[in-house]
């Protein structure tokens, strides 16, 4: 079992930045990759970014890769999402997720474990 806890969400003005954190605990060695997804009210959960746990590969939603950066600190069992130039359209609950097996990494159904989510609100 893997337990994920997100933090770092909040209210920010358009053009600002936020850095989200996701701390993983439990059976860390079972993790193949970690991902960030987001879900706005009335919309489906959307892939944001993913990172392999023990390799240098990263994956991004095409529309976000110029503004968002995913990184990890294996020593702290933590994955980060740096979000810059935030727009009101980025307002959503952001979820961290972990997957045990290899795959596309862009589909929510692939992921085995989920955090509780952290709210990001961008005001105009």
End-to-end separation: 40 Å
Unreliable segments of 5+ consecutive residues:
none
In DSSP terms (H or I, runs of 4 or more residues), the helix count works out at 0
Strand content: over 45%
The number of E-state strands comes to 11
Cα-atom radius of gyration:
13 Å
Average pLDDT rating: 96
Largest sheet, if any?
7 strands, mixed
What does this structure look like?
- It is built from no helices and 11 strands.
- The protein is mainly beta and 124 residues long.
- The strands form 2 sheets. Strands 2, 4, 5, 6, 9, 10 and 11 form a 7-stranded mixed sheet that branches. Strands 1-3-8-7 form a 4-stranded antiparallel sheet, with no helix packed on it.
- Strand 5 and strand 6 form a beta hairpin.
- The termini are far apart.
- The model has no long low-confidence stretch (mean pLDDT 96).
């Amino acid at each position: 079992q893997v337990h994920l806890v997100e933090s770092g969400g909040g209210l920010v003005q358009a053009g600002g930045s936020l850095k989200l954190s996701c701390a993983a605990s439990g059976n860390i060695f079972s993790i193949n990759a970690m991902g960030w997804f987001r879900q706005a009210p009335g919309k489906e959960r959307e892939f944001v970014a993913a990172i392999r746990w023990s390799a240098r590969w990263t994956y991004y939603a095409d529309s976000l890769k110029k503004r968002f950066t995913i990184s990890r600190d294996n020593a702290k069992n933590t994955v980060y999402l740096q979000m810059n130039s935030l727009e009101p359209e980025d307002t959503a609950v952001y979820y961290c997720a972990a997957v045990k097996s290899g795959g596309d990494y862009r589909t929510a159904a692939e992921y085995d474990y989920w955090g509780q989510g952290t709210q990001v609100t961008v005001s105009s």
